[in-house]
Amino acid sequence: MNQAISGSVEERLARLERDVKHGKRRTTAAMVLLVLVIAWSLAAHKAEGVQAGDSGAGDLLGRSLTIVDAKGNLGFALVMTKDGPRLALIDRKGRPRISLGIYKNGPRIVLNDTKGNQSVSLAVGKDGPSVLLYDNQGIGRITLFVDKEGPEMRLVDGRGHQRVSLVVNKNGSGVGLHDNMENPRLTMGVDENGGGVILKDEQGHPRLTIGAGEGGSDVLLLDAKGTPGVDLETTRNGSSLVIADEKGARRAILGSLPLESVRTGSTELTAPSSLTLLDKEGNVAWKAP
After folding, report:
1. C-alpha dist (Å) from residue 116 to 66, 90, 92, 95, 157
2. In terms of Cα–Cα distance, which of 257, 255, 250 is closest to 282?
3. Cα angle value 193/196/200 (rounded, 5°)
């Protein structure tokens, strides 16, 4: 199995799993701030007016600004907070449809549907730009962002659980599939050395790996502890099937495989049609032909 794939891609997909939980908290915080902006604007709209300072002609000073239609319905609200300005555009039913603001982490734009629920969120944070798409229940279903390592995307189900992760970085690209409890179950990756697939059980242990590259290809079966049990590979030396015991020690070899002698340290390439049985110490116990 390609080590670069199983390392860099899986590490990056694991970070995505952590980021999706932080993303949920950031979404909730943005909604709370939007409600505060509108509430503040309504209070300013009902007040007697904004006190302007003694400034030059044409200047208007204040901490909030509201604009209403001919019937007095609020349509535009601008508020200055300690982190930066907030702007909300409101429809005829009093629902916020577009909100813009500068937050502690950077600028953000939110587009809402006819019910006032978030539909699209665009932001630029310290790590880079991001886009979130929400369903009609307000759950972020698609997240796309770009950081210093490259673009990443995650797809979420109706319960808010991450199900698909995609990453691209300098080492290659990868895809991760998760079960309904957000446990990673399948990882696929490609880099300059080749491609690979890893299948995991419910505990996150690799149980099946597939790799292919310039040096050959292999299929590896592992037990519940992650110990290799069966290894089928094709390399420049030929093809072989290796069966290991519960400790991962090779016990049977079918086909061509470099075999090092425990006693002498010399290496011998077994014949393509040979069957070799080894003892627990790795010594040849039986061989044919």
Report:
1. 19, 9, 12, 5, 21
2. 250
3. 150
For 122, the enclosing helix (H) or strand (E) is: strand 118-125
In this structure, how many other beta carbons lie within 10 angstroms of the beta carbon of residue 84?
A: 12
pLDDT tens for 240-255 read 999 999 999 999 999 9
DSSP H helices, the chain, are: 3-4, 10-46
CA distance 233 to 208: 13
- Give the separation between CA 52 and CA 269, rounded to whole angstroms: 90
Instruction: Tell me how many degrees the CA angle 31-32-36 measures, rounded to the nearest 5.
Output: 115
Q: What are the phi and psi torsion angles at 112 (to 5°)? A: -110, 155
Give domain limits for the chain.
Answer: 3-42+61-226
3-class DSSP assignment, residue 40: helix
Q: What is the DSSP letter of 9?
A: I
> How is residue 50 annotated by DSSP?
P
pLDDT tens figures, 263-287:
556 677 788 889 999 998 888 899 9
Compute how many other C-beta atoms are within 10 angstroms of the C-beta atom of residue 213.
18
Q: What is the pLDDT of residues 48-100, one digit of tens each?
A: 444 444 445 567 777 788 898 888 889 999 999 888 999 999 998 889 999 99
Residue-wise pLDDT for 151-196, tens only, equals: 999 999 999 999 999 999 999 999 999 999 999 999 999 999 999 9
pTM recorded for the entire structure: 0.69
CA distance to 97, 153, 217, 238, 256, per residue, from 235 (Å): 60, 35, 7, 5, 9
The DSSP 8-state label assigned to residue 6 in this structure reads I
Task: Assign domain 3-42+61-226 one CATH number from 3.40.190.10, 3.90.930.1, 3.90.1070.20, 3.40.50.2000.
Answer: 3.90.930.1
